[in-house]
Amino acid sequence: MSSYISRRLVGLVPLLFGISIISYAMMGLAPGGPAAIFAGMARQMTPADRAVIMHNLGLDRPWYVQYFYWLKNLLVSHSLGYSFIDGRPVMTKILEKLPVTAELIGISFAVTMLVAIPVAIYSATHKNSAIDYLATVIVFVGYGMPIFWLGIVLLNLFSVRLHWLPSSGLTNLGVSGFDLADRVRHLILPVATLSFVSLAAWIRYQRSSMIEVLGEDFIRTAAAKGLGRWTVVYKHAFRNALLPLITLIGLYLPALLTGAYFVEIVFSIPGMGYIGLNAIFERDYPTIMGTVFFSAVLVVLGNLFADIAYAAVDPRIRYD
Amino acid sequence: MRLTVIFAALTLFALTAVGCTSSTQTSSQPPASGPNAVSGKPTYGGTLKIGAEAAADTVISLYAHSEGSGNDLSFLYDGLVNQDPNFNVVPWLAQSWTISKDGKIYTFHLRRNALWSDGVPITSADVKFEYDLTTNPASNAPYRSDYDVVKSVATPDKYTVVYTLKEADAPFLSSVAASLPHVPLPVHVYGKVPPSQLAHADFSKNLVTSGPYTLSEWKHDDHLQLTSNKRWWKGRPYIDQIYIKEYTGNEPVQFALQNGDVDTAYFLTTAMWESLKGDSRFMLIHNPADQFNWWVVNMKNPILADINVRRAVMYAYDRKTEVEKLFHHEDVATFSPIPWAQKWAFDPSTENAYQYDPAKAQKILEDDGWKIGPDGYRHKNGQLLSFRSGLIQGSANSVKSFELWQANLKAVGIKTDARQTEFNTFYNDEQKGNFDVDNGGFGGGGDPDPFIFLSSKAWPPNGLNYGHFSDPKLDALIDQARTASDQAHRKALYFEIQRLVVDDVPDFFDAAPYYRNVMNKRILGVNPAHSGSQFTATMYDEPIWYIAQ
Lengths: 320, 549
Hints:
- The structure holds 2 protein chains of 2 kinds.
- By secondary structure, chain A is mainly alpha-helical.
- Chain A is built from 12 helices and no strands.
- In chain A, α5 crosses α12, α8 packs across α10 (229-266) and α10 packs parallel to α11.
- In chain B, α9 packs antiparallel against α11.
- The relative contact order of chain B is 0.19.
- Chains A and B meet through α2, α3, α5 and α11 of A and α1, α6 and α13 of B.
């Protein structure tokens, strides 16, 4: 097992290298440049003076040379550089926003599970019932709906028209310190948006996994030896049906992370997606690279973790 | 207080979003004679809440490169001199100044009672320190070009600063000495940081400031909290706290204003103004802006280099319909390179230049040899009369303008297509000369001088004359106006410049917009007539505003 983990960790190095170089190339080849900072922003800033600043920031070099320095900086001084916009270390900016994104993802994931699993089990055990059909409809709607659109619709309905819930941010103006009730009110819409879209996938996977397990011989055996329906479904079928879902967690992490970024933009929540998107608009290269690279690391580690967890809970699986 | 914040590009960006609404407001305006005091005496206390549409970048004035940060910092830092809402230069940290006869030596005398927020006196060393820092390439300060005109800075004693200029430069006071990026900086604090590290230093917990407020809390991408500076040389401001809430975009700011979460905003879009101006909880602020809208023209394009084509375009363009029908009188059609808020230099007769006259446009083109072809457009020597119109993506107003523009030009046989690019690409292309005509706005400099975009000495890389326009006569007039020290003389020269610009059509000047804002009536002592042409001008009076307790 430990040799498997170390092999996988070594494999991450070229993977992350590839991700970073492709990201940097895409960024470097995109039209425009950090013009907002260096263009006509200062009325009197002449192109000659702008050239001095571009040189100081290394922007007068081709993207692959810039990439080399970015990589060197990361490997030698473990730094993601400084933001062009506010001059702060990118690492600091990201670590400041990470808890916000993690909170959003964590709560949404918990909500998704709490809703998806009971619904899926009910659907699987009551195939073709009204609730099963309803769940299928939700699955299709959820699959088809762009997350940013759903967010705007919910925001417009519950915040702008009905005034039930706040429209943006994580705290009310002037609330100092942590106020649980205020935080919950602010999280309802973003979490609902993010969860609804993930719900579709989870109900579908869990339902089909359950149906598959329920058709297995050992379930028939369990039922035949006189066990109660509850015991058969939850103790025998559900536990086995959960196994494939552990892999799904790993695979689903990128979607969850991207979804969270969209939700942050729609609801003005200052998380990683929020700073990442602003950085793209402002061509703040170090911050763009920082958020992209950091997200990549999270996704890759999430996948690795899922694979390991899979082996840990299922004794039939061995990595040797 | 008002410190000139110079952000042409953001102004451009904002301007394309500014532009339009109907001007039926009047009812809620108080008498112009006095402040909006309802009753009672001003009292200390309370919190003024401001909604910003974007997050602050920095609290170090040297690096304030977004308009939002510039607005935040105008509460925190004082300049040597300041401009009142009518653009008069007034004493500030310098209680007086003299200008030598040849206009090259500016001597400032600092007031003795001004202190940094940590109690250290503000001296000439702090003034020179800012100059040294800005001109040091290692600091990467974006406003270095402002000092291109300065030869040296001397500090003969603790309270005297002498700037020696390379040549006389009348805009120096308003464009440099009064501008935010060039406020004195505390040498006893920033002097300890290597210049190359200053941009990365974190002063958010212990910022030393000179203005009416100090920074008490900065939660990145969320809010700034400012506390009144009890040591301020003009006396303690009435309002104790300013809470600047940072939103993402304009819609959340509008909701916040409507919910009463914030009292005022940094910037209102047309849509926001339209939905807020009828709300009786707000006092309306509505003044000529320090900006103008234009289509920048690239003279490297042979079709546009032809003055007859340029004149024909102006006669063909129905700007009156544009400002009255499309933009509900929220700007006024003018043909001037000087923002109309610069009242002393702005020639009102430019409002009559190039009245809509398509027949005249047709005749000019016909005489110039451009003949209508079977496709309905004009041609000369096999060449189609056509150019591209550059627009910034996402600006609904510039699309609205373009539709009329395209139809107007088509009516006289000129073909134009839109080229929409996102604003980073837009400016990059403009700098590289990769454009025909570009829609936008300009201004915010606090001085009428059009040198930087009209003089042939300001061709890239020395200035922002990206269209490479050149007229030696205009160059000479601009230089004279820059070096004339007497305002009456400058005024005469700027009127002459405006007449020449009407003749030359160096760019397609379009309209002069209004600056609009709303202020919750909870805030007392606000005089909208004294609120000026941009947010920082509105805040000039802020220390005397108050909240009823």
